[in-house]
Specification:
17 helices, about 400 residues, 13 strands, tRNA processing, metal ion binding, single chain, thiosulfate-cyanide sulfurtransferase activity, Oxidized Rhodanese, domain 1, metal-binding
């Protein structure tokens, strides 16, 4: 295998690095990498893998580009809203490096197809954001005997770990044998994310893959933790070798069954909660109120009711309805009696109608049937925008 003449110019800045050279560039050209997820982590990883000259890149993502993605998913743009992310990313990479071989795979990665889809690649990058796919990718990497470079980011923090590395590197199940409760696993939409944080972790994933391909990796498994507000921002934790009792990669335990026969969603506690749908449940007639009925109360009795918004101060500062006081849910549940002094009827609101239910229930319990209406708004501010005021911001 040889480099094209103009590739000496294109890749010259990295080929002159000690320990990299022409052999390293040829290794990249011959390598193949599968990137699962073309979102906040996948986009920067893909961009740098393409720019570095990886010969074949598979992009696996069944989602489409939305306007909310553009804050962090840097390969997509406004003209690609509605396009499959895998195709959008492939087009962007071709503009960076037209010689790349790119496989844009728009089907969902499932237990039934994971081995087949990932088998052609040397390294797998996990750029997803949900536990079932993480376990599926880890088990598949073990079955295929390929390293898995996994990234995660949320709020202002992120982490990087390479699993199944070398002869004794642990897999994801070694570190996390029991998945977290689905109720406790937030998404970027629920918890927030700074785009630059996903960029840092995604770039580190690309770097890990390049190091492995070119032989620059020290082959020592570790977990790298990043905090944008930390000092220092990076912290590395050395990992033990794989557990002999691990059901995926261990040697002394029964191995996991055929991957295609595993229900990873149920293993992780079921489907992710649909908070918007939950917030729209009517509940008990005396506990909740529709946005239509609530708007009438605001028109006729605004000065005779107490209005409490239980979102975080950051969310409250983005947008709020007139007359509402911000009392974050954690503060209200910690001391509900602080809001018992008024004899007015109390109405709670939040973003989707879930936290407001908790707040209303907590205050009703504290009142101990002393009278007065305590209700929350069904569907929260999202329903308010949909049915009352279409100009109220949605975030």
């Amino acid at each position: 295998m040889q480099l094209a003449l103009d590739d000496y110019t294109r890749y010259g800045r990295q080929m002159i690095l000690e320990g990299f050279g022409l052999p390293g560039q040829l290794k990249l050209q011959a390598a193949s990498i599968a990137v699962v997820g073309a979102g906040g982590l996948g986009c920067p990883a893909l961009q740098y893998l393409a720019a570095a000259g990886v010969g074949r890149i598979g992009i696996i993502d069944h989602d489409i580009v939305e306007i909310s993605n553009l804050q962090r998913q840097i390969l997509h743009d406004e003209s690609k809203v509605g396009m499959p992310k895998a195709e959008s990313a492939a087009r962007a990479l071709k503009q960076i490096n037209s010689r790349l071989k790119i496989d844009a795979i728009t089907q969902a990665l499932l237990p039934e197809n994971a081995v087949e889809l990932l088998a052609p690649y040397d390294i797998i990058l996990d750029c997803t954001d949900n536990p079932p796919t993480r376990y599926l990718l880890s088990d598949t990497a073990v079955a295929l005997r390929k390293p898995l470079v996994s990234g995660a980011a949320q709020k202002l923090e992120g982490q990087l770990c390479t699993y199944n590395l070398g002869q004794d590197g642990p897999c994801y199940r070694c570190l996390f044998p029991i998945p977290p409760s689905r109720e406790l696993v937030g998404t970027c939409e629920e918890t927030g994310i700074l785009g630059a944080v996903t960029g840092i972790i995604g770039n580190l994933q690309a770097l890990e893959a390049i190091k492995i391909i070119t032989g620059l990796h020290e082959q020592q498994p570790s977990l790298l933790l990043f905090s944008a507000l930390g000092s220092p921002p990076f912290r590395s934790i050395k990992l033990r070798s794989r557990k002999p009792t691990c059901p995926a990669c261990g040697t002394s335990a029964e191995r996991v069954e055929e991957i295609k026969d595993i229900d990873y969603v149920q293993f992780c506690g079921g489907a992710a909660p649909d908070w918007e749908s939950r917030g729209l449940l009517a509940g008990e007639a005396d506990d909740r109120i529709t946005v239509a009925d609530f708007s009438k109360i605001l028109e006729t009795r605004r000065d005779h009711v107490t209005l409490l918004d239980v979102r975080s101060p950051a969310e409250f500062s983005i947008c709020s309805l007139p007359g509402f006081t911000n009392v974050p849910l954690n503060e209200l549940t910690a001391n509900p009696s602080a809001h018992l002094s008024s004899n007015k009827d109390v109405y709670f609101i939040c973003r989707l109608g879930n936290d407001s239910q908790i707040a209303a229930s907590c205050l009703r319990d504290a009142r101990q049937d002393s009278g007065g209406v305590v209700k929350d708004v069904i569907g929260g501010l999202r329903a308010w925008t949909r049915h009352v005021d279409p100009d109220f911001p949605v975030y």
